[in-house]
Design a protein that fits this description.
It is built from 15 helices and 10 strands. It is of the alpha/beta class and 385 residues long. The strands form 2 sheets. The chain has a 6-stranded parallel sheet, with helices on both faces.
């Protein structure tokens, strides 16, 4: 299985990060400007936050999250009713609401802020069939919290669900500038799969850079992954990095350039150590079709993402990574990974099947949760061969 890793980040020092800078032209081109709207719920962009402040924001995000779960009818009434272009809905809203009211929730008692909602004690449905088990892996800057709508919908279909916080994300706190490799970044996912029973298989779902993380996991534990679903994600080929994918600069715009900023913890003469989002452009860049409540949740929950894993070329073999059935879900109103770039990813490394969500931004778990849920369920029911 042995992956080889090539990390191009220098050794991290304890120097303070300098003033934020726009992405340089070698990663993002210029094109037409996009209108932006200010989000004022966060501190100023140049402020340096300590760990206590970040944890405080996580608590706020958790309260918003719990509020969504407790108000069942409000949650369901706001979930998107759009349909998959390949699989129309088969049940009414009233049926969903009735089932949802009976749904049990489990939150880790050792960590009241946890968004881990798996029920490991129940592994089969009432008819004796093994439950489908989804493992959800977020993208850069997000955390397990972003999947809350999808978790609710999948559990309504009696699926097991685990949402993973990657290293330095969500409720996992560390110096984000110190994460140099996908091995480090994806460690919580790899640890989860390592502890999984040998006769157990899961469906991996990766969003954004989470696609690179599930690719790495597929190479290490192919026998524990039945299917892999890439949602507006970096679906890598052998000896390719996420940065290689984003080198298709013709697909990117000024909004892409201005919304992402580098952090240089080791000084401007060295490679960037992290990427963060301009909070004033969050709505236009990531959430252009997302409800305002979810934008508020994201504005107090999103954090910087490590840059090192973006530059790392993965060694992916046909015997391991190639043995897992891959599926790609396109988002057609995506400014982060535009539709043209997603199509280039698909053409360079064709998956088993491609699905498309109309009217979805880069965050379909917020903007089109019902459509995404239906696609996930449809893929889970497809035969493996």
């Amino acid at each position: 299985m042995g992956n080889s890793f090539a990390c191009f980040s220098p050794t991290i020092t304890k120097t303070s990060p300098p003033k934020d800078e726009h992405l340089p032209p070698w990663i993002s081109p210029s094109s037409t400007n996009q209108k932006s709207r200010k989000i004022s719920s966060s501190p100023t962009k140049n402020e340096v936050f300590d760990e206590s402040y970040i944890k405080q924001q996580a608590q706020i995000a958790s309260m918003l999250y719990q509020h969504h779960l407790q108000n069942n009818s409000d949650l369901l009434s706001h979930l998107d009713r759009s349909v998959s272009t390949k699989n129309p809905p088969t049940s009414s809203m009233k049926q969903h609401q009735k089932k949802f009211s009976r749904r049990s929730r489990t939150v880790s008692s050792s960590n009241p802020l946890s968004v881990h909602l798996s029920n490991q004690d129940i592994v089969a449905t009432s008819d004796g069939q093994e439950k489908k088990h989804f493992v959800l892996v977020h993208g850069g800057g997000f955390g397990a919290w972003c999947w809350y709508k999808i978790i609710a919908l999948l559990k309504e279909d009696k699926c097991e669900v685990d949402a993973i916080d990657l290293t330095g994300s969500g409720l996992h706190f560390c110096d984000i500038n110190s994460i140099k490799t996908i091995q480090e970044y994806a460690k919580p996912l790899i640890d989860f799969l390592a502890k999984l029973a040998d006769n157990k298989e899961v469906i991996l779902v990766g969003h954004d850079i989470g696609g690179a993380c599930i690719s790495y996991a597929m190479e290490l534990y192919p026998s524990k992954v039945s299917k892999a679903i890439f949602v507006a994600a970096t679906m890598l080929s052998n000896d390719q990095s996420a940065l290689d994918i984003f080198s298709h600069q013709a697909c990117l715009s000024d909004l892409n350039q201005n919304a992402q900023k580098f952090i240089y913890a080791n000084g401007k003469k060295h490679q960037p150590t992290a990427i963060e989002f301009d909070e004033s452009l969050l709505q236009d860049f990531l959430f252009n079709r997302t409800p305002s409540k979810d934008i508020a949740l994201a504005s107090v929950s999103m954090r910087a993402a490590p840059f090192g894993p973006v530059t790392e070329k993965l060694s992916l073999s046909t015997a391991n990574y190639g043995s897992v059935s891959r599926f790609y879900v396109k988002t057609d109103e995506d400014f982060v990974i535009p539709k043209l770039l997603q199509e280039a990813i698909i053409q360079s490394n064709p998956p088993k099947e491609v699905f498309e969500m109309k009217g979805s931004d880069h965050s379909p778990f917020f903007s089109r949760p019902r459509a995404l849920h239906r696609i996930l369920m449809e893929i889970s029911n497809l035969p493996l061969k």
